[in-house]
Amino acid sequence: MSVESNNELASARAQETSDKKPVLEAVGVGKRYPGVVALDDVSISLRGGEVHALLGENGAGKSTLIGILSGISAPGSGELRLDGEKQEFTNAAQAQNLGITTIYQEQSLAPDLTGLQNIFLGREPRRRGLFGRALLDEKAMRSRVAPLLEEFGLTVAELNQPAGSLGALKQHALQILKALAFDARVVILDEPTSGLADHERLSLFDHMRRLRDRGVALLWVTHRLDELFGLADVITVLRDGRHVAAVSPDTETPETLVRLMVGRETPPGVSGASSRAKRWTGAADEILRLEGLSRGVLLDDINLSVRRGEILGIAGIAGAGRTELARAILGADRIDGGQIHMNGRQVRIRSPRDAYRHGIAIVPEERKSQAVFGDFSLTKNISISDLRRTSTARLVIDRRAERKQANEYVDKLGVRTSGVSQKIRNLSGGNQQKVVVARCLFSGPSLLLFDEPTQGIDVAAKSDVYRLIYDFVDSGGAAIVISSELPELLRVSDRILVMREGRIVGEVVVGGDADLGSEEGVLAEKIMAMAARGGAA
Amino acid sequence: MSGTNRSTPVASQLSGVLSSTSSGAIAILILVCVLATSQSSSFLSLDNGFNIASQMVFVLLLALGTTIVLITGGIDLSVGSVMGLTAGVVAYLVSQGLPLGVAMLAAVAVGALLGLVNGLIITKLGLPDFIATLAMLGVARGLLFLWTEGTPFIGYMSKPYYVIGGLERPFGYLTIPIMVAMVATFAVFAVLKYTAFGRHCYGVGSSSDAARRSGVRVPRIRVLAYVVSGLLAGVAGVLLAGQTTAVAPDLGSGYELQAIAAAIIGGAALSGGRGHALGAVMGTLILAATANAMNISGVSAVWQPVVVGFVLLLSVILDRLTEKQRGRSAHLPSAPAVATAH
Amino acid sequence: MSIRDRLARTAAVEGAAVTVAFIVMVVVFAVSSPFFLTGQNLHNLFVESVFTVLLAAGMTYVIIVGGIDLSVGSVLGLSAGMTLMTASKGAPLLVAILVGVATGLVVGLVNGLLIAHLGVNAFIVTLATLSIGGGALNVLTTRVELTGVDSTAFTNLSQGSVLGIPAPVLMTLAVVLLLEFVLIATPFGRRIFAAGINDSAAHLAGVNLRRLRLQVYVLSGVVAGFAGVLLAAHLNSVQPDLGTGFELTAIAAAVIGGVSLSGGQGSVWRAVVGAFFLTTLSQGLQLLGVDPTWFTIVTGVSIVAAIAFSRGTQWFASSLRPAAPRPSAPAAEAAEPTHAVNR
């Protein structure tokens, strides 16, 4: 099939769908996992030439819904309809053959294959030759994507490079080409802007508009409310696995959307959270000071200090260098320059081991892959940060002492468990997180780093985690909290530093009384502005 | 449109091999050549060239199969003993009076079949590749021992088999084993570069998730890779039986390690997704040339495994160091680097 | 705890399966051969098991931390050669032992430095040192006449006994007990498990992965070196290919015993049971007049059977367990099959 006819087809399709008949529909779909209702009677219609945004807090059921629509998991109840006809997908490949392509944040490209090879992976055009149709038709591949290249910001040279060596935006572009090369009618984008710089985000939005103009139905999952306006045609909001609203962006504001997402007047994490009894007063000795900390292009001349009793928030969009900062402080990544001072003394931290020795501990971002020892009991998960403490003569672990200590922490932190010998992988995300905090506390730190401390845990557990942070700083520690959720940062922090492209671009002091909702709105806007554009640039 | 940067496929492949083959390996090859030439001018002679070629045929055939398996992210430890067993199959069947052609076909089929068993155990039973092929190594080796009852199969040689085994050379330097190895190299080269199967091998090894999401039938590709590896081991076994004129019970033992070493030196990665047919040739050549050079220089043959080990170690160390230098953390730039590669 | 839970737990203990298989095998051999349970035979069985047992015990550490050590077979042979050479030159017994152990230490150190500090793949590094070590023994045997050592102290290392228990068996028992104790009861052992279960998490929780891995490879080398010392005393001669294939037997023993190759699971006693399983099998078959070459086949099949069986029991155990609460809904979705990658 020639490219021209492809384009004709696309425009014809656009004509056809101008009356916006749904291409892909989910009707009353539900999904349960043991102990959790992930999705409950949700309906959604994706129409050609329309950008459909999907909003919801973590755990609202967005990824479950995407999984069902893209054929990765089957709905427990309800049905899917393609062009009005009931359809069942048994796997992702089948959904793709029906024109439904999902663009994930990661792991959708084979890093060692070139861009071109990735685009056609699994569906390579063959040419007729000596051996039947055994040989690949490289020419056909090139000619099929050639007219699309420029439009999506790729060059022929980049197409010949290993996909793993391209940046995030180019990788997204590759995935879009992959969809287009096979006449995708539905494209699902799962938080596509995470990891993109600002200008890259805008380019991606252009790509999305082009897809829309070709008559493709887009489902767009995003966390950032400010992105929606001007691009989304319809917004569906999920909350606790249920469909809450399908609204038009014209009638909404970020504030009203937040309200729909959390179901209350106040931002997430606030209601029910034990609010902090006493705010930091400012006068205390310095725990951590960073001077000119740098690491390649990821961290550039970072200066900051945290004092005893203070909670320092770090804001910024994904890729701004927040996690890199935490890893640098912890010694997980080698730094190129700058100094770290702990309690007024300059220290050298070359590994997390060193960091623990100097009283720094971290609650990492990715709980499953970076924090939890799934096969270990709660006891072992807690004591790993300081095994000497429970060892006789530092040599032999005293199991009774170990259990006793673990029990104390589990009680103190309110971990819900059948006992400390339970394997941690059988706990809920929130309880796992509490155990990870317990592990950090066990090492007796004076500074705790929290990287996305409430990611993927429910509201009740969130407020528990906040309480743990408060208790820690109130008892004489200092904390740095990294979060993508601004309301969370505004709630817990005394002070917020805003990062962008590896630099600290601004600072916001959160006022004494957090109950002033209006002030939070103002601060949030200020932070957003700095995170997106930066003060200096 | 893209005519500017088009070069002949082989040339571009060659440059690709040169850039992906460990720089250390190439340095070693040059060093070996220089040292050996300075010791004896006969090293670079045509005669000796074909000597090296004849010596490397068997490891090369195994290294080609190993390369394919490594590309898919697996590992095949059984190739050496499968080669030995298939050699036994030919010897036995011929001595039982079967025509040579039939016996050879049967041996190659046995090789492919054992590869299929490997693949199925790995994909269906979910055993780690390392363990499944280790078990196959034991089983194939044991079968040959049992079958030979501890004494070599002999008396199966015939005039045509001397030719096939490369002991008689009706075509001058170009013996049958060398020709077969050349054909096999070309075939593997073409399959990896020009067929969907080859492409899918790279895809599966590079990211099995991405391959699955793209609709590649991952288990099937993995099984096929083992079948090809077994098949090539079968071909090697047929040739080897012709060259050794006797099939000893331990024929082929240790070859798997040489094959893996050759593939790795040639740029294949244990993590999958990388490797070339020409890289396997390069790796085998380095090992064979080193052995030959030592031989010529009068170094005792007992030193050979030591040198092979050092060559392998040196090439991966140099690779690792250059990699560190270049900071090849380009993969997924936003993701935090994992603690340390292990 | 309900009966269902108990059943699930028992089934989940993978070592139980091998132990049962082991006992069944012993009974079969005992019934079919009157010599099997004789003192002399048991003596031989134990004395000849110690090498595999020691290698498997050291290998357990390496596998649990998530690595592999192919070099142990060569270390066994080379260390035996070095020990014999030293002893035959009239050096005191202690020096000979130290030389043997030091041989293992050096190889382990090389392995560890390259793997832990340079980040080279463990399989390749130890494959190379396997080749180098084996070759070195080969060279050694051509250079030095390695015949028997005529020294009571040296022969006592293998011939001596305490309370009727052969000295090598006693020493091996001590090493195995020590290794098991260190693994389960010390911070070092705990960290090994932690690193094997989740190395990123261990790193971020303050475990020094480099040092830990270095220590583990050194330990494996030292244990293999010690096994070489015992082997030298046992044989009182060294063949050029001594130790060949032992690395695979050791890995097989650990795997059959239920030590998971993906790391983070296992124990020394399991590997020891696996090693006993293999040596008893080989000896029993010989006793029954079965051609010893069956042994490699049976080993291969046992490996596959052991793993298939443990997969089966795991599946059985998890199907018995009441629907365990999954971590969280989004995480549950990620439970797609990913194929195990070799390390």
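Residues 1-7, 327-342 of chain B have pLDDT under 50 and may be disordered.
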